[in-house]
Every structure is written in C-alpha cells, then in structure tokens.
Task: inverse folding
C-alpha cells in the first residue's frame, strides 16, 4: 500500500538485477562438434521496433536460415514501436542493452561519447556491400569526424502526402483540384463541404470536415503553405526556429481556429493522437489524411468494405498565400542501427556479416520476399505468384521495421504487379516535387540544451497553440508564449544549434 | 559491567540447545518460515534497491555504472527546486490529493453506512456486488469507456443531450474538468471495493447496543451518530493514516491516460513528470532525485499523522 521510492526503486532494481547477472549471451560451443571450418555458434539479440503487434514466430524460416548461414543463434526482441524509446532507456539504465538496436538522434549523440556503440569506421572496408549501400554523408550524419557509430536506418524522405476521398468529392460536387492551382482556400472549401454537405450520403451528420492530432499531426502541409519552418529554417546563414515566426504561426493557427470555430475540425482532437485520427480515416469519418502509397491501397480496401464506392486518391499539398507548399519531409540517416560496443569482437563481426549480407541482392530479396517455393513461386509464364504462407510469415517485417539497404521500395515485392510498382514510383515522384526540409534536421540533437529542454518547451508552447485553435485564448497570447519560449531555453538552444551547424557544415 | 557479561556468555551454547528443544519454539518454527518469503520480498525488492537512490547524487551514465559515474552532490535537487515546473507539479499533486481525501475518502464510508441501513437482504447484496464490480476493470478500460460516451462529435451522452434540445458538452478536452473526471472515475471504480472493510467493521458491532438505543427511544440518525460512527472511528483513522502515507503518490497510470497537451497545467504530477523526463528523455539521475524528494515528503506525512493520532490516545499504525 505504501509505495516508497517508486521510480528510484524500479530503476535501481533493474540495475542491480542486471549487474549481478553475467552477460548471458556469450559464446557457446557449437553443437555440431569440431568440424573444420565450422565456427562457434554465437547468440545474437536484435531489437526492432514492432508496429501493430506484428512479429515472427521463433522458428521462422528466415531466422533459421540466418542461424545456419552465419553460425549464430538469433533472438529478436520485438518491441512495441510507440514505446520503443521508453523500453530502450530502461534497458540502458539496467545495463542490459541488446547486441544491435535502433536509436533516435538524441540517444545516438548522448551515448556515443559513453562508448555504447561499436565504431564501424575501421571495420567497414571489410564489408563492402554494407558500406556501399548508403552515401558517405548519410553514414557520417551525427558522427564526429573519423568515427561512424551506427548504420543509417533507411527511410523514404518524402514518403507521405495527403490522400483524399474522391468519391466524397464527387458526392459534394467539387471537381478534383488541379495540382497547379490548388490553394489553401480551395482546401478550405473542400473541408467545409466534407463537414457539412453529407459527403458519404448517409443522411446524417457523421463525417468530420478535417482532423488533426493533439500534436498537430496531419497538418504539416498547412505549416508549409503558411510559410512556417519544418522545425528550423535557414535565414541569412542562421538557423531560426519555427517558434520565432509569429506572423506565419498566426496564419497557420488562424486557419485551424477558423475550422474549429465553424465546427469543421474534430471537436475531440485534443484527446486524439495520430493513431486515433488514422482510425477516424479508416472508419470513413474523415476524408483527408496524410499517408503513403502502399497504405492508399490497403486503406482503400478497408474503406470499400464500409462503403463500396470509396476511392482514395493522392492530393497535392495546398498552395499558401505566398505560393509556398510542401509535403512532410524527413532526412535519411538520423535514426541509426547500432551495434553494442561492449560485447565481444567475434560477436560484433558476426553481426556485421549479417548486415553485409542483408544489404546484398540476395539478402534484400530474402528479407523482403522470403524464400522461393515457400513464400512465392515462379509460374510457367515467368511471372511470380505469392503463396499463402507469406500472409502468416510476413518475411518483410525486419526490412520494414529495422534495417534495409538504401533506396529500397518496401512494397516492391518480387511478385508485385509492375503497374503497382509504377504507381508507387509515380506517387513518390509527385511527393518529391514539394520538399519541405528541416534545415537543422539531424543536428539539433547535438545541442545539450535541446536534449534537456526541448520536450518541455515544446509542450508548453503546444498548450498555447491548442488554446488558440479552440479559441480559449486570443491570437495575441502567442507573443507571450514566444518570448517565454525564448527566455526559458529557446534562445540557448538556437545559439547551440547554430554553433553545431557552423562546425557541422 | 564487564564482570556481569563474562559469566552470562558461558551458557550460550547450552541456551541455544535449550531454545531449540523448547517445545513452544519448535512448534512455531514452521510459522516463522512462512514469514520468510514475505521478508525476502521486502529485502530484495524494497530494501536492496534503496541503494539505487545513490544515482540521484551523480550524473548517472548507464554505460559507466554507479561506480563509474561522476558525483555531483545536490545539483539535481537544486535543479528540481529551481525548476519552473516545480511549483506546478507540487500544486497539482496537492490539489488532486486534497480532492481525493475530501471526496473520495468519505465516499466508501457513506456508501457502507447507506448499505448498512438496507433491510432487504437480496437487495443489499446485489447492490454491493454491482458496485464493487468496476474494481476489477482496468483503468484503461474505464478511461476508454468514458471517452467513447462523452466524445463531443459522436458520443452517446452528447447525442442524448442534443436530442433533448440541449447543447453539446466538451468535458474531455476541458482542463477545468480534468480533476473531476479523475475523481468520479476513481469513485466509480473503487467505492464498492473500499467499502468492504467498513462493512466488515459494521458487522462486528454488538446488536445489543442498538437494542438498548431503541429502548431509550433513539431514532435512526441518533443510532448512526452515537453507535455506528464511533465504532468505525478506529478503522477510519488507520485507513486515513495509510492514505496519507501515499499522499504524494497518486498512481501514474490513471493520470497519464487522462492527460492531453491542453490539461498538462493541471494534470502534470510528479509521477508523470518522472516518466516524461526520466524514461522518455533518459535523465535518470534527475528523476531519481524527484522520486527521492517525493518519497521524503510521503514519509514525513505518514510519520506526523501517526504521531498526532497516537498523541490523541488512539492506536496508530505503528
């Protein structure tokens, strides 16, 4: 009943338990005996983030294949993606990190000084396939000169764009917007019609005009349109935060406030995270959502089961008053896959061997498609066909969640219809026309003040933003929030990030 | 003194044998063994980990360990007390606790008294069962049910209100409503369960007292005031002291589930702050310092409450 030192106990308990136990994943002798050329079997743990609870069974054919090929005993710790960072921090506090895992920029910068990661720089020449799969600047990102503490984790930089219900547009009598002239005003008209003109023809008011999550997700395109920086922007060689753009911020918040006041924005958005908004979209309550091309296909299917006429199409980002527009943009390589620096050399080498193979054509194919004749087969006409085992085995998981070679299309399976691959390519090409990069992407983590204060500052500022959107505070309260942001740490972060930027570029 | 000690040392081995041979003790050894698991539990999981508070005086780095990390003295405590958030955290923690003690603590007592007055046996037991059932639901489920019912756009309650010609209410996103939602969910979930102990105490009151009171012409109210409540005072006091012991400890899960970026100014308490800064941002030493501070406040509260109760000639917890 009386919980004394709750957290400190939890953390230190983990520490103690682990400090007492020896590193259990050591080298164990091969069971096949002393056959020449056979190496000792090494136990290796990988920790990928896992989404939607998906994972492989323990005797998955790919695990068994890797075990045999590299004389390892692979253990995969599937960890819920949303709480991956929590778990990783707790494991770090307990000194029990897996052999290879994913880190975000903040932890990557903080931990590399502590010797947590293996420096790959001197070893990479031995693994040519792996080292060639990403360009040098991607490898070097967030690393001190002369060291490479992790492998870049592959992402598609401009993967997402708005998707819109074309059938809803037809129902409300608005033509599909033209890419060259699609303005924020047109966007507003669509939202208004979606919220009020019964776009799903149900006869009831059961649709939302527009929705955002409580961290302002699903509205990046609007930030871009109103000229707000995607985090940081470069003005006269100096990095400036989006929080110091009062005019643009007011335009952006003003647009959302107008939607809220006119009952066009989900009234419950304060309690919704990104997944909840996606849920509304998938349930046919929301007609505009930011997503990627393979999801357009799967969500269309889902929506058709609710409303047979449902049709999703890609929507270009709206053009703002000063002609700006952009799609959510990330950089490649700020998230890293690292190899634990405290495990023995033989183990580290074995892990690198696996990644080197994984980056090869053969490895990539197996990690994406699985094995021929069990996950797919070649038909007489030379085309490939997917087999039912793929449904349950999901050979693509580790590629999707963990490591992939650079530039890989994660939905281009060997058996995928070429027209779909072309569709994905076209979708990406459309996205890439409107980049919206963060000028400080990757280097903000180099600022100690950013590491310590950003989250709190962000939350404080968000509170004001949300209050303005729902009309609880007037637009003018933004000025006070900005000056508070600056004095309680924002200025210091700006200074440090600019210093990092000068040495980094 | 030494002269006295010397001769007493002599019969020690003899004494030990004597103790083992002692019939009474031999009989009780199995009973002492039964305590052992509990004792070990407290030593291993409660006492040994207390050494972990060392890291609140260090700049703890997981990769260098407790031995290798730098000592920084009271730096983390200084940071906590000078933190802008500190007063907000303290205020929210105290406010929620006061609400809890003022409204939640008496609720099961009231419920038990009401239940005690019901004379229909089947009605009494079925009400009791129904009311303590929510105790077995997870907080996640309860918060989920609330947010489905009270959703502004598609919630049942709001549809009903609109059907009755009233306007919709948006309590889920309203920072001012946060504390009351928290309180009512707590009461709904726990009132039946917490009432069990009071019902047991009520059952042990000598019926002769009531009979005598009836003979003296006392009505229901008089009986409750002069017999039922005085019989409950000891139980109430002990539970109250125990409740004070967890004064600053609100339980993380429930508040965390109800949090959103808008109500943080009223909903952020020490536990959620520790989670956000310690686990999400990996500042282990700082949050251990926060946890230690929290524990010390809890300790002071329970000791003083116990002291006050003992001074008033009643039995305390220890």
Result:
């Amino acid at each position: 009943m009386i919980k004394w030192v709750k957290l400190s106990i939890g953390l230190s308990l983990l520490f103690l338990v682990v400090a007492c136990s020896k590193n259990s994943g050591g080298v164990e002798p091969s069971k096949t005996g002393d056959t020449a050329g056979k190496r000792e079997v090494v136990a290796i743990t990988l920790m990928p983030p896992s989404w939607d609870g998906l994972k492989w069974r323990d005797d998955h054919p790919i695990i068994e294949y890797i075990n045999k090929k590299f004389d390892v005993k692979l253990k995969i710790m599937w960890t819920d993606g949303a709480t991956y960072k929590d778990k990783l921090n707790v494991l770090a506090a307990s000194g029990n990190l897996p052999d290879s895992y994913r880190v975000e920029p903040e932890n990557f910068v903080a931990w590399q000084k502590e010797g947590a990661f293996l420096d790959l720089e001197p070893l990479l020449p031995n693994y040519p396939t792996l080292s060639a799969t990403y360009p040098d600047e991607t490898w070097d990102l967030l690393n001190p000169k002369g060291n490479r503490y992790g492998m870049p984790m592959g992402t598609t930089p401009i993967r997402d764009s708005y998707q819109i219900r074309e059938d809803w547009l037809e129902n409300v009598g608005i033509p599909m917007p033209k890419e060259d002239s699609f303005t924020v005003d047109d966007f507003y008209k669509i939202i208004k019609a979606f919220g009020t003109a019964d776009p799903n023809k149900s006869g009831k008011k059961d649709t939302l005009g527009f929705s955002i999550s409580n961290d302002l997700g699903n509205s990046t395109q609007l930030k871009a349109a109103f000229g707000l920086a995607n985090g940081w922007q470069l003005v006269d060689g100096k990095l400036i935060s989006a929080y110091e753009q009062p005019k643009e911020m007011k335009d952006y918040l003003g647009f959302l406030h107008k939607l809220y006041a006119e009952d066009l924005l989900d009234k419950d958005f304060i309690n919704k995270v990104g997944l909840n908004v996606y849920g509304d979209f998938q349930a046919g309550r929301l007609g505009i959502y930011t997503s990627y091309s393979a999801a357009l296909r799967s969500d269309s299917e889902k929506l058709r089961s609710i409303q047979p006429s449902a049709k999703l199409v890609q929507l270009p980002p709206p053009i703002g008053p000063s002609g700006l527009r952009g799609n959510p943009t990330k950089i490649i390589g700020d998230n890293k896959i690292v190899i634990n620096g405290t495990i023995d050399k033989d183990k580290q080498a074995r892990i690198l061997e696996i990644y080197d193979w994984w980056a090869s054509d053969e490895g990539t194919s197996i990690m994406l498609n699985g094995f021929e004749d069990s996950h797919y087969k070649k038909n007489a006409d030379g085309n490939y066909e997917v087999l039912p085992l793929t449904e349950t085995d999901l050979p693509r998981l580790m590629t999707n969640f963990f490591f992939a070679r650079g530039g890989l299309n994660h939905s281009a399976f060997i058996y995928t219809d070429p027209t779909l691959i072309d569709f994905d390519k076209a979708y990406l090409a459309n996205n890439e026309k409107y980049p919206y990069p963060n000028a400080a992407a990757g280097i903000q983590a180099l600022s100690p003040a950013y590491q310590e204060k950003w989250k709190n500052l962000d939350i404080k500022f968000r509170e004001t933003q949300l209050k303005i959107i729902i009309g609880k505070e007037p637009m003018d309260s933004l000025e006070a929030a900005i000056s508070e942001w600056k004095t309680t740490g924002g200025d210091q972060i700006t200074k440090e990030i600019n210093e990092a930027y000068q040495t980094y570029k | 003194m030494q002269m006295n000690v010397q001769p007493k040392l002599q019969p020690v081995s003899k004494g030990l044998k004597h103790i083992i041979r002692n019939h009474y003790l031999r009989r009780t050894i199995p009973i002492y063994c039964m305590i052992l698991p509990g004792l070990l539990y407290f030593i291993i999981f409660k006492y040994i980990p207390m050494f972990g508070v060392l890291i609140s005086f260090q700049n703890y780095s997981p990769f260098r360990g407790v031995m290798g990390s730098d000592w920084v003295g009271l730096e983390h405590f200084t940071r906590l007390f000078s933190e802008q958030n500190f007063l907000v955290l303290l205020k929210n923690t105290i406010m929620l606790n006061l609400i809890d003690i003022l409204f939640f603590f008496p609720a099961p007592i009231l419920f038990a008294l009401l239940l005690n007055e019901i004379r229909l046996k089947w009605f009494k037991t079925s009400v009791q069962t129904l009311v303590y059932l929510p105790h077995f639901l997870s907080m996640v489920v309860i918060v989920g049910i609330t947010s489905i019912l009270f959703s502004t756009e598609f919630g049942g309650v709001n549809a009903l209100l609109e059907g009755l010609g009233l306007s919709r209410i948006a309590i889920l996103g309203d920072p001012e409503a946060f504390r009351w939602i928290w309180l009512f969910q707590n009461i709904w979930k726990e009132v039946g369960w917490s009432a069990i102990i009071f019902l047991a105490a009520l059952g042990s009151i000598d019926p002769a007292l009531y009979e005598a009171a009836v003979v003296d012409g006392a009505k229901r109210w008089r009986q409750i005031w002069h017999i039922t409540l005085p019989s409950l005072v000891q139980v109430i006091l002990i539970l109250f002291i125990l409740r004070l012991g967890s004064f600053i400890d609100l339980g993380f899960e429930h508040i965390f589930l109800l949090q959103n970026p808008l109500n943080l100014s009223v909903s952020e308490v020490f536990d959620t702050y520790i989670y956000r800064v310690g686990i999400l941002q990996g500042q282990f030493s700082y949050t251990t310092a926060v946890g230690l501070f929290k524990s010390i406040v809890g300790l002071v509260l329970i000791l003083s409450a116990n002291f006050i109760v003992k001074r008033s000639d009643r039995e305390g917890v220890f």
